[in-house]
From TrEMBL:
This is Phosphopantetheine adenylyltransferase. The chain crosses the membrane at residues 6-26, 47-65, 71-89, 101-121. It comes from the Bacteria. Keywords: Membrane, Transmembrane, Transmembrane helix.
């Protein structure tokens, strides 16, 4: 079961690493999110968002191989994906690119839920 937990955390880590390509500029941000980033302040914020996702993605992958960090990584992953989905649903009217992000985040929730269950079962058996 440890290998499954590791694989699930790596999957969620990769999901969080994908937006790091937004660092490459506004064209990549537009491709990722289907929005025009024509204002410098928005570009700075969106590119910084890419950095933060990269950090979280790296942490999730690192935690996949560091059992003492797995609970924290699962919680951080849940906060990330649940908050995005909650924001998307509360605002509504999002485009197709954002809809894809929501769908991928639902996949991440399923993976994190399974990872949390495996982690708890393993902890209770110890």
């Amino acid at each position: 079961m440890e290998k499954v937990l590791t694989g699930l955390l790596i999957l969620v880590g990769i999901i969080h690493l994908l937006p790091i390509s937004g660092l490459l500029g506004v064209e990549r941000l537009a491709a990722l999110y289907g929005v025009s980033v024509s204002e410098p302040n928005l570009e700075i914020l969106m590119r910084h968002r890419a950095v933060l996702f990269g950090l979280l993605g790296l942490f999730l992958v690192y935690a996949a191989f560091t059992p003492s960090l797995q609970a924290l990584a699962i919680i951080a992953g849940f906060v990330s994906v649940v908050s995005f989905i909650a924001l998307a649903w509360s605002v509504g009217g999002y485009n197709g690119a954002i809809r894809k992000v929501v769908v991928v985040d639902v996949v991440a929730i399923v993976a994190l839920s399974a990872a949390a269950a495996i982690h708890l079962i393993g902890r209770n058996q110890s």
